[in-house]
Amino acid sequence: MFYREAGEFKASYQKDQAILPIRQDRWFIWAIIAIAFLVIPAVSSDYWLGTIMLPFLILALAALGLNVLTGYAGQLSLGTGGFMATGAFAAYKLATMFPGMHILFVLLFSGAITAGVGILFGIPSLRIKGFYLAVATLASQFFLIWMFNKFGWFTNYSASGVITAPQMTAIGDIMVTGAHATVTAKYLFALSIVTLLALITKNLVRSNIGREWMAVRDMDIAAEIIGIKMLPTKLKAFAYSSFLCGIAGALWAFVHTGSVEPLAFDVNRSFQILFMIIIGGLGSIMGAFLGAAFIVLLPIFLSNAPHWFGLNIAVDLISHIEAMVFGALIIFFLIVEPHGLARLWQITKEKLRLWPFPY
Amino acid sequence: MSLPPNQPGGQNSEVLDTFPKLLLNHAKVRGDKIAMREKDLGIWQSWTWSEVADEVRALACGLAALGFKSGDKLAIIGDNRPRLYWAMAAAQCLGGVPVPLYQDSVAEEMIYVLDNADVRFAIVEDQEQVDKLLEVKEKAPKIEHILFDDPRGLRHYDYPFLSSIDKAQEQGRQYDEAHPGFFDQSALSGSGSDVGIMLYTSGTTGNPKGVVLTNDNVIITARNGIIREGLTENEEVLAYLPMAWVGDNLFSYAQSYVAGFTINCPESGATVLTDLREIGPTYYFAPPRVYENMLTQVMIRMEDASKIKQKMFHYFMDHAKSTGTRILDGKPVSLMDRLIYKLGNFFVYGPLRDVLGLGRIKLAYTAGEAIGPEIFDFYRSLGINIKQLYGQTEGMVFICVQPDGEVYADTVGTPAIDVEIKIDDNGEVLYRSPGVFHSYYKNPESTAKTKTDDGWVFTGDAGFFAENGHLKIIDRAKDVGKLNNGTLFAPKYIENKLKFFSFIKEVVAFGNERDYASVFINIDLEAVGNWAERRNLAYSGYTDLANQDTVYDMIQECVEQVNLDLSKDPLLSNSQIKRFLVLHKELDPDDGELTRTRKVRRNFIAERYGPLMGALYSDVAVQHVETQVKFEDGRTGVLTADVKVRNAKTFTPVKAAS
Amino acid sequence: MNERNFGEVILDLKGISLSFGAMRVLNNISFNVRQGEIRSIIGPNGAGKSSMLNVINGVYHPQEGEITFRGEVRKEMKVHEAAGFGIARTFQNIALFKGMSTLDNIMTGRNLKMKSSMLAQAIYWGKAQKEEIEHRKKVEEIIDFLEIQAIRKTPVGRLPYGMQKRVELGRALAAEPEILLLDEPMAGMNVEEKEDMSRFVLDINDEFGTTIVLIEHDMGVVMDISDRVVVLDYGRQLADGTPDVVRSNQDVIDAYLGVSH
Amino acid sequence: MRVERDVIYIIFASLLLMVIIPWSAGMLSEDIFFEWPFFFEVAIGGLLAGVMYSLVALGFVLIFKASGVFNFAQGAMVLFSALTLVGLNEMGLPMWLSIIATLIVMLILAIAIERVVLRSLVNQEHIILFMATIGIAYFLDGFGQTIWGSEVKLLDLGFSQNPDFYFGGLILINDFDLIAAGIAGVLVIALALFFQYTRIGRALRAVADDHQAALSVGIPLKHIWVIVWAVAGIVALVAGIMWGSKLGVQFSLALIALKALPVLILGGFTSVPGAIIGGLIIGAGEKLAEVFIAPMIGGGIEDWFAYMLALAFLVFRPQGLFGEKIIERV
């Protein structure tokens, strides 16, 4: 209905291969970005920015990472939490070891370190497939968390095992971590990083490496026969995926919570992220964000819903009912659209493009 | 846009009275503007005017190198491809004459034209066409050289006279260096009075005639059209109609060369519709059947839409019927209606125009056949400025055009610029214009029959001027006959009225020198098929579907509705259809039942289906018939069927209240 | 196919035997493939044809026999190396990447030719994009060649069987292989599709001079387009030679009378 | 069933390592106490604990074998069944009655799951079904605790919980573990017989091979699903009773699912014996490592050791010890 494509012909491959070949889509995305950067910080309260937008962005980033591995490369992983933890602790060690280091480099290196760990735990993927791999990735999940708990070195021997992010500035003297950083600054900082990484990810998945990943996902033996080497391809997926998860973890610890313990990245976190990409849509950048939004907002909605209806129920009971409804909703969603919100989005878009025709 | 001056026959090269001059001028004036695009290898490959000029230059020199002389004929056969258009210009640069042929005609059909036109050189699209020419070559020995565009599959053909356009252009570039000044000299030497192009009219009877048109014929007419419609150099045109057809030559070649706008060639026949949407032309021509099919498609697809959507669609379409055309014609419209129209424009008209690829249309023409009023109104109500024009090859298309704001479905408008029209006493339309053709090639007597010494041309159409000064065509003059009771019988008029029903594809009406009118009918397989599916009628194919009683019932209603209309017309009330039948096979050019431009060849059909004719004018209910048919692959077979014949209700004439 | 002369032998298989556990799939098969010819392996289902292809492109490793490729004896190679040696193939039951479009499937076929680093691809604009585009051109030529422009951007999952076969052929061609292995390219096709497919096979061999090894279970079309034919039957080699020679071979006739079509 | 030779080797090797590593650990570091009786006590304790793991793993296997669904909700089913049992029991029903009632509840649950989830997700990719079972897990956890409350409940079947000396007073073993092992053993044998000799059992195995075959056996797929889920429910109940009376009935019961997973991949998703042997290896290995290795690396390794152990096995046999081998067909 909103699409006007007559006369939108492509006279060059650059234009034809653009991320958003259709004009209206470009407008739409630019609008979103503008809103995210200008409107939201202006209009929304600290509560919204701090407890909804920030976690949403950071978890979306982690979901993006997992989606690269599971959605694009087809390697089911339950170790996301572990990788996020690695990122968080790596960042902490870096920041405390080299106080002068700029936060961007802290993030970059912590991501790189996580990528290394990812590669390590990715090696079995050459032989192990499907659920066997999924369970195997749990090994990394549990091992890493245990490691960060166990060895004081990671927490600089803090008694509580909790790490606290040092104050750091992004540009000039604008604080983006620590107590004195304004929520808005944190939000904008996280937003910029997530946007950038989303763009990079899009570039990767639309390039040769992306196609190799999808080839491995869709039909690994055929992929191998046309010359794609399994191990490097899968390891690249593990590396980049963990890179994103690592940065997400670091942001979580530094920008979102400010201080964090390994438990924040336990197996439930892994499942939470997995939910995001399933609900959001496997193999879709957009999906990671939609899924994250859904999974972040749903519990908030559920826990507040009773008050809106003027019921007051015992807290623990609420939490149980929450779990119940949550589970039910997940199932409901999988039944209505197994391919996730991204697919719904896509279908709507197709419909609009063909409007008023049904097909 | 300021148009360069033009005095016919002017010798100096400043006067842009030939295509080479126009081309070189564009290369100078708007060298970097896109002249042509072709969807190829997934994107729209583009050529600027100066690039086109270079390509043409190379090709022309290449032809010269091969021995192409001034006055030589260059046959051009293939789909609309940039290089084939360049070939036209190239030939003209050498003072030669391009002769485009219908790419879908079979080898035999080509022989006559190639031979009659004394063609020495041919430029063709691909292996398919090359094979045809090789087949022809024995019988038409005048052909000396064949150039092809697409080398696919031709690698192992080695004939001395066969080479690729690329190679020719290569040689051309060398030749150009070897003979500096040759090209410019010969390109600028031509004049308006020289022969510009030869187009063969697919005559409904007898052999096709080569219509010789001078540069002036083509260029002046093209320019007049541009002036009348205020076209600019920024138009986008989709070149998808046969290059051999005068319309394509005018809209996709001549007018582009005059105005400097862009021509777009689709990727392949299969992708025309998608390409149409991608390009979104601003200036568009299509014969009625194309608009018809489009509308049928729209309706079929909407059938499957959700109920709400359908409701919305129909609500707004109804509103458009009452308001859209008025807005388009600049007639007064109430504010409320305008608002609703705006709303509809957002929800339906706009998206619909866009999906159909007509989103950017400034001007759309239709001609060749009469177009169904509701089809016509449908597009106009959407806000698409579609207009009818009346013309023929002999007059380089433009004779009458509907002026903006005065568009009536049943007329073809007022005379085009510089066109005079008169109706002779037996109702035939004559015209005189700058577009009037030079002569029929090597056929003085036909020329004399068609064209008077003082330049009047017999259109062969019967018509009259309506009180609003618009020309109204009823039929081919020679087809207009009399029923045995002496009243007027205009078969085409009846056929068109029937064809306006989306279920009916082709109609052949009979009645001349007979007691009453009757018709053969071809149902539209897609529309009726869809209709049948929704009533879940099973059918195996056309023949089966055509013979079903429910289908007959449905067709009968159409026939009787037409009868009702006819009964209101004092002139034609007697030619109401008494008997009709639905033909067991689709009429097909390959069987000679239609011309290449899909005009029915009434007499031929009458002979071919003698038994059925008999049935129409007796009272048998079922008639057995055997028919020779030609399949795609050239094999022939026999089709047998028992065709039902039905009587239709007729109405007592009502005297028009006047 | 009148008088065609071929280059030297590029692939020579001597005494190939392959077994899975107790089951013997190929039994002492020997034949060679010459540069630029269309070489067919025919035989009833279960004759070991597919296994033969899998041996040629290194999916299976024969227990006995030696493979000489371009003059040198080939040692056991990994699956992904075949492509590097210029051997591409299609599959009996289509093995396309279902989640990707026609274009992407064929693009993937060029993965070995794409050199830009992961970092360059992450940045995309510049080097990686240039590479993408020049390969896109090649791929478009293939699309044009196989006449699949209309389905360029359709996800292959949605395509009809015949079209999928064509796309798969395109993916194999994208690697610009020296030897093209076709595993029952006409299986499950109607006459018309079969004709199209054999036209493409001939054109490929003709336009790009690609050597083609193709296997089929019914003699039909294959005999007309092949230069030489090997006949297998339950792992045994029944005959080897020009179509005419093979047709007149008694064992072959017997074997085939046994097979219903 | 045929056991491949290398499987035997692997098992044998692992047993050997289980002896050598602790022993050498004892030799090397002085803060590790090694003595043969103690070693066996630990080992046997581990084996018995392993049986408990197998109990849970068994549920997974049944469902995966018959429907290819990786049922993450097995743990939740354990918790749910235990909660229900205790709940009913507290409401005053005698134990035997509440057990029967719980069995019925589990059957209803199975039917509900088939109706609501499986039927609408048939032919979806495995990962989708997997996620669905996680959804089920959440639902059951929430549902169970909403109804029966989340405070720890005691489940006393009257078995003695205190250790006794065996083998001439050399080795201390918890009676309860023995009983549990016994019951588990009985259950396994029962299942084995069920699979071998009943029509349904054969059908189930057919389904495992391919769904077409299953239909040829003449049992509609949906029935088969209901049955396996019901059986899995029963297994869950047994596991629930065992674990419940060991640790008390509380949310943490759901987490023993995580314990069962390594057993699963080690034994192979599709093999009942695999689940048993895997359980034993994991159980013993874990206990031994806890006692003889953990001290060297700071203890608390039970979270991940089992996984690492399983991972190590996978590297040798990607399909698990008894899983079907994946052969690439082209």
Layout of secondary structure:
The complex is a heterotetramer of chains A (359), B (658), C (261) and D (330).
Chain B: H1 19-29, E1 34-40, E2 43-48, H2 49-66, E3 73-77, H3 82-93, E4 97-101, H4 107-116, E5 119-124, H5 127-137, E6 145-148, E7 162-164, H6 165-178, H7 182-189, E8 195-201, E9 209-214, H8 215-229, E10 236-238, H9 246-259, E11 262-265, H10 272-279, E12 283-285, H11 288-303, H12 307-328, H13 335-356, E13 363-366, H14 373-381, E14 386-390, E15 400-401, E16 414-415, E17 420-423, E18 428-432, E19 439-440, H15 444-450, E20 457-465, E21 471-476, E22 481-482, E23 488-489, H16 491-499, E24 504-510, E25 517-523, H17 525-534, H18 542-546, H19 549-568, E26 577-582, H20 602-608, H21 610-616, E27 622-630, E28 636-647
Parallel strand pairs in B: 1-11, 3-4, 3-5, 5-6, 6-7, 10-11, 12-13, 13-14, 25-26
Antiparallel strand pairs in B: 1-2, 8-9, 9-19, 14-15, 15-16, 17-18, 18-20, 20-21, 22-23, 24-25, 26-28, 27-28
Chain C: E1 9-20, E2 23-34, E3 38-42, H1 49-56, E4 64-69, E5 72-74, H2 81-84, E6 87-89, H3 102-108, H4 118-123, H5 127-145, H6 161-174, E7 179-183, H7 191-207, E8 211-216, H8 220-225, E9 228-233, E10 236-241, H9 243-247, H10 250-258
Chain D: H1 5-28, H2 36-67, H3 74-90, H4 95-121, H5 126-148, E1 163-166, E2 171-174, H6 175-197, H7 199-209, H8 211-217, H9 221-247, H10 252-267, H11 272-292, H12 305-316
Antiparallel strand pairs in D: 1-2
User: Which secondary-structure class do the elements of chain A indicate?
Assistant: mainly alpha
The shape of chain A, in one word, is globular
Rg of chain A (CA only): 21 Å
How confident overall, as mean pLDDT of chain C? Answer: 90
Q: In angstroms, what is the radius of gyration of chain C?
A: 19 Å
Largest interface: A-D, 47 and 51 residues
Q: Give the amount of beta strand of chain A, in percent.
A: under 5%
Strand content of chain C: 15-25%
Q: What fold name goes in the CATH topology slot of chain A?
A: ABC transporter involved in vitamin B12 uptake, BtuC
Protein name (chain A): Branched-chain amino acid ABC transporter permease
Membrane topology (chain A): Multi-pass membrane protein
Organism (chain A): Sedimenticola selenatireducens
GO cellular component, one term (chain A): plasma membrane
